[in-house]
Amino acid sequence: MITTSPKFLADVLTIVLVLLSTAFHEFAHALTATWLGDPTPGRNGRLTLNPIPHLQPVLTAVVLPVVMYLTNHGFMILATTPINPSKFKHPLRDRAIVSVAGPIANVICAAVMIGILWIPGAVERGSVSFIGIVWAILLNFVIAAFNMLPIPPLDGYWIFRTVLPLGLRMQTDELARSQASFLVVIVVGSFVMQYVDQPIIEFVIRLLPY
User: Fold this and answer.
1) From start to end of the chain, where are the E strands?
2) Is 123 within 8 Å of 116 (Cβ atoms)?
């Protein structure tokens, strides 16, 4: 007979909620880019709330975060949405607007889950569902903060680049397009986030019902 522990069930719920939140994050990018005049997301099937098209590439958007979370509760998720900034009326500004839409979507997801926990009788405190949702709330805030780091090719970089001189911007754009950017994100992002995680945890705790 196969048995599953409450911890495992809570972990699975957390993973499902975070993957759905990530899909919403990418949908927010797609919707905002379309609103600003770029038809690329729609042509690539990204104007949908169906999470599957948004969880690309599968290796970094699904496999890596699932393995990391189930093995040591670590978490890193990297998904992409195809856009063409040349279609924007104001490419530099509009690229930044598209970028900030993603982290905002994560905050919205966290806020919705916090609201559910505050509904009397909706989720029993200490239950598998409660624990899974709390971890999903925490990770949504962590993902939002992580994405706002000004490291190519994270969302924060595309916001920060609006103030960079053209020459430096061209160099950092080249890094954002290279495979090396993934390594830079892991090394630098992990180093920075170790100082951010604890304040986020304390912030989330203050938002939970007692």
Assistant:
1) none
2) yes
Alpha carbons 72 and 43: distance in angstroms, whole number? 38
Q: Is residue 30 part of a domain?
A: yes
Of the candidates 60, 51, 35, 39, the one whose C-alpha atom is nearest the C-alpha of residue 109 is 51
Pairwise CA distance, residues 133 & 135, whole Å: 5
Q: Taking the model in full, what pTM does it have?
A: 0.92
Domain-embedded: residue 1: no
26 flagged as catalytic: yes
Look up residue 183 and give its two tokens: 């390594």
Give the angle 24-62-71 at the CA atoms, nearest 5°: 125
12-54 pLDDT, tens digit each: 999 999 999 999 999 999 999 999 999 999 999 999 999 999 9
Burial of 152 (0-12, 13-18, 19+ CB in 10 A): buried
Domain housing 180: 6-207
Sign of the Cα torsion 84, 89, 91, 94 reads: negative
Rounded CA separation 113/52 (Å): 21
Angle (nearest 5°) at CA 80 between 76 and 81: 150
Residue segments in the chain with a per-residue pLDDT below the cut of 50 = 1-2
